[in-house]
Amino acid sequence: MLNEQTLSTLNALKLFGMAHGFTERLKHPKTADLTHEEFLGLLVQDEKTYRDNLRLKRLLKNAKLKQPAALEDIDYKHPRGLNKQLILELSSTQWILHHRNVLLTGPTGVGKSYIACALGNFAARSGYSVLYLRAPRLFETLLQSKGDGTHLKTLTKLAKVELLILDDLFLAPLSDPERKDLLEIIEDRHGQTSTAVTSQYPTKEWHHIIGEPTLADAILDRLLHHSYKIELKGESIRKNKK
Question: pLDDT tens digit string along 112-134?
Answer without folding.
Answer: 999 999 999 999 999 999 999 99
